[in-house]
Design a protein that fits this description.
It contains 7 helices and 9 strands; from the N terminus they run ααβαβαββαββαβαββ. With 205 residues, the protein is an alpha/beta fold. This is Class I SAM-dependent methyltransferase.
């Protein structure tokens, strides 16, 4: 996955510069997430990609920083959103002490984690949350594994990239197992170019 996103980083960042893929209802859920946060609203964008959602969080009063597995994505985050710190790291091995964030924002960053790896990623994001902090997870709904390489191949990138779809109930169960209490969930039908329904779940540590 790291090499695939390194390959497509500039194509992705140039195509999705801000919130072009999101519907208003999803952006409203992001605002709701921010409104729930205690303390200083220090938020980790876990899997920040090229950083396009960090200004959205900052606009809601969050003090945001990011991590991403892809060095090239982090390079574009530094280039396009230099005001927000970002570093290379895995969401399953975060370089932060326990309980240091008021919120963790996982915007489609768990979708490439196989089912066997999802629990450890959620536990790690839970670890860096303060008691009473919140985790937001967004993902495509459904079941099974999808090959999502084709859209990049059409743009000249010879990569292999798979996505793990999950139902909302599956994610709620996984969050509960990681020690988080679900407080809000959104599921909407596919829109526009999308093939699957989309979901957002918010849970409290």
């Amino acid at each position: 996955m790291r090499s695939a996103y390194d390959e497509v980083a500039d194509t992705y960042a140039d195509h999705f510069r801000s919130t072009e893929p999101e519907l208003p209802v999803e952006l409203a859920v992001v605002g709701h997430f921010a409104s729930l946060l205690p303390g200083e609203r220090r938020v980790l964008d876990a899997g920040c990609g090229a950083g396009r959602m960090m200004p959205v969080l900052a606009g809601h009063g969050c003090r945001v920083e990011g991590v991403d597995l892809s060095p090239e994505m982090v390079r574009r985050s530094h280039l396009d959103h230099a005001e927000y710190p970002a570093q290379v790291a895995s969401i399953a091995d975060l370089p932060f002490p326990d309980g240091c964030f008021d919120g963790v924002f996982s915007w489609y960053s768990t979708i490439h984690a196989p089912d066997a790896e999802l629990p450890s990623a959620l536990r790690e994001m839970r670890r860096v949350l303060r008691p009473g902090g919140f985790l937001l997870v967004a993902f495509q709904c459904g079941e099974g594994v999808r090959d999502v390489s084709e859209s990049y191949r059409r743009r000249g990138h010879d990569i292999v990239l798979h996505r793990w779809n999950r139902t909302s109930d599956d994610m709620v169960h996984a969050l509960a197992t990681a020690g988080l209490e679900v407080v809000a969930r959104l599921e909407r039908a596919a829109a526009g170019h999308e093939r699957e329904a989309q979901a957002v779940v918010i849970a409290r540590a």
